[in-house]
């Protein structure tokens, strides 16, 4: 079934579909079309995209908190081995983001959402099998943990898909909400997994199970939800014919300087968010833990607090997109990096006050725990800054490609319309490339904390925060130099002052 262009002055017809929910006519930049048809369809696709992406993030980070329970359930692993289990899903997830992005124009956003949700059954069922068998070799655990990276790839396909649905003026908020809904999966898996498996209650409001820890319960829950997400995408989402393009067209973005600059900045924002989220449960356990789960107020138990960082970072992401829509993405991104420098140094300051091996002596453990509120407060500020930076950088990406398309064409011409459509396709491809590179930070950060060449885990942690601080300084300098500094003689190719 096909449609013809709507004559001027006539009402916009509903978006037509061919078989399997393909929308042929999609013009989000047309104000009348957007108000009568586009907004409703885009919102419906956004809601179910958020749900599927949320589950993807939850499965991606399922090892971040479950690894802290493995020793208690009979597995004899060192802190370095546990950090590797936490890091592997992030490495695989970052590598999958590139093909996941290209899959949306190839197969359709709805179709690939169904496929990516169904693939979550692999890591969840594998997790359920392995955690019930203490004799499982470590390499098998590494392999199963790596498959959890399938959930990390969902972010790229989801963001690329939603980018096609919204007009430029609303992309920042829409992409921010989509990403925040996904990022929230990190926080909720860290909050509810201890409750589901019986390892902890929620601040004493829900009591921990007295029957022991059953890690496989979480896997069964998320396997069931993956089936729900697959069915929801089938019934409620759409494919866009206007989003079709070949991988060769999409790969053109890897030749662009702006793609790699933004990827570098995204390592600083999202790489930090996902890396810190993955490592936080183990960081708390290794530095502030007491031997037995204690009631709130008498000790620091990681399961009570591990989810807070990801929750704060997820909540501030749409705020970063909203700010970027109004102030400009580059300004907000620069402010986010400035805050990350300040609060990362503050986290480092709290760690300097600690004595290594806090469980060796009750007095030492008590003294270390007195610094925990400062550590947690400063770390949450770091998470808030990463969330704002995530939202603002993803506002910058479509703005950069739109600006370049507008500068190369004349307003009101067919060439301008074609250039803007091509720019939207390239921006969606760039989102995948940038997301893939940025997510590598989720692998590097846990590995930096494990640092097998450093015997003392505390020393490795302190050294890692020093390196992270220096990196954020460089990211802020790049943001200012490329997108905000106004040269004495503004050249045509410069993006400074373009409101990116």
UniProtKB/TrEMBL annotation:
It is a multi-pass membrane protein. It comes from the Bacteria. Gene3D superfamilies: MFS general substrate transporter like domains (1.20.1250.20). It is found in: Membrane. GO terms for molecular function: nitrate transmembrane transporter activity. Belongs to the major facilitator superfamily. Nitrate/nitrite porter (TC 2.A.1.8) family. This is MFS transporter. It comes from Nocardioides eburneiflavus.
């Amino acid at each position: 079934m096909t449609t013809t262009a709507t004559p001027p002055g006539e009402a916009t017809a509903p978006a037509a579909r061919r078989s399997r929910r393909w929308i042929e006519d999609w013009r989000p930049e047309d104000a009348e079309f957007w108000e009568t048809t586009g907004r409703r369809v885009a919102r419906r696709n956004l809601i179910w995209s958020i749900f599927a992406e949320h589950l993807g993030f939850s499965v991606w980070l399922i090892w971040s908190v479950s690894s802290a329970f493995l020793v208690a359930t009979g597995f004899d692993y060192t802190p370095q081995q546990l950090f590797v289990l936490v890091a592997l899903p992030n490495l695989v997830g970052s590598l999958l983001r590139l093909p996941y992005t290209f899959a949306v124009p190839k197969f359709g956003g709805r179709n690939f959402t169904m496929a990516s949700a169904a693939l979550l059954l692999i890591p969840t069922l594998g997790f359920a099998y392995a955690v019930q068998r203490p004799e499982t070799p470590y390499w098998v655990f590494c392999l199963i943990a790596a498959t959890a990276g399938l959930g990390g790839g969902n972010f790229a396909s989801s963001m690329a898909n939603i980018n096609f649905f919204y007009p430029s003026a609303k992309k920042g908020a829409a992409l921010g909400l989509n990403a925040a809904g996904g990022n929230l999966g990190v926080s909720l898996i860290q909050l509810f997994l201890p409750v589901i498996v019986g390892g902890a209650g929620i601040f004493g409001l829900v009591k921990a199970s007295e029957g022991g820890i059953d890690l496989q319960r979480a896997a069964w829950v998320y396997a069931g939800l993956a089936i729900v997400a697959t069915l929801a995408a089938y019934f409620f989402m759409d494919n866009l014919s206007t989003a079709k393009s070949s991988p060769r067209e999409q790969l053109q973005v890897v030749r662009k300087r702006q793609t790699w600059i933004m990827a570098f900045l995204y390592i600083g924002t999202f790489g930090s968010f996902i890396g810190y989220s993955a490592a936080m449960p183990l960081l708390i356990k290794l530095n502030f833990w007491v031997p037995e789960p204690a009631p709130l107020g008498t000790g620091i138990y990681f399961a009570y607090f591990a989810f807070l960082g990801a929750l704060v970072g997820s909540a501030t992401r749409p705020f970063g997109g909203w700010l970027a829509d109004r102030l400009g993405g580059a300004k907000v991104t620069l402010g986010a990096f400035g805050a990350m420098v300040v609060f990362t140094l503050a986290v480092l300051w709290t760690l300097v006050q600690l004595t290594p091996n806090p469980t060796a002596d009750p007095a030492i453990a008590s003294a270390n725990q007195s610094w925990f509120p400062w550590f947690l407060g400063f770390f949450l500020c770091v998470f808030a800054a990463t969330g704002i930076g995530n939202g603002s950088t993803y506002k910058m990406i479509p703005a950069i490609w739109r600006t370049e398309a507008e500068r190369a064409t004349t307003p009101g011409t067919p060439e301008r319309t074609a250039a803007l459509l091509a720019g939207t396709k390239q921006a969606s491809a760039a989102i995948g490339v940038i997301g893939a590179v940025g997510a590598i930070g989720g692998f590097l950060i846990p590995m930096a904390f494990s640092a097998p060449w450093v015997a003392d885990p505390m020393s490795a942690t302190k050294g890692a925060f020093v390196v992270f601080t220096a990196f954020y300084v460089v990211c802020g300098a790049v943001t200012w130099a490329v997108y905000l500094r106004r040269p004495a003689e503004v050249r045509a190719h410069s993006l400074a002052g373009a409101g990116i």
